[in-house]
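User: Show me a protein chain along with its predicted structure.
Assistant: Here is one chain, sequence first, then structure tokens.
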Amino acid sequence: MSSTALENLLQALVNNQNQLQQAITNLVNRPTHESSDKTAKPAPFKGEPAKLDSFLSLFILWAGEQKQLKLDSGKLNPQKCIAEALLMMEGPAAEWATEYAHHISRLYFYIYKPRPDTWFPILTSSLLGPVPVLTVVC
């Protein structure tokens, strides 16, 4: 191999090394997580069955970045996520959500604020929060 060919190969190696070093420097100095990197709030769900999986996937990604939808442990709060998802519905889905929200609010009312003239045993899961203390006045 001639010395000119060897010099050209060494120069190409140096140039490639410099390009690699510049690429690594750019990667290291790049901002890590700007607010624009966050997942956009999903478009409202309008009730199209073919778009349900997409909506739910985007909603879960978005919800995972929302502090107000999390418990103190950092996990998602199911009640807050359901309420938020219901608020993101339009059209036929909103009609369904309205009926569903109505049932949730009635259940919540009877569990947490029972009428004084009514008594019945209420079974709740720990996900619904603390069991209310009922005071019986005779």
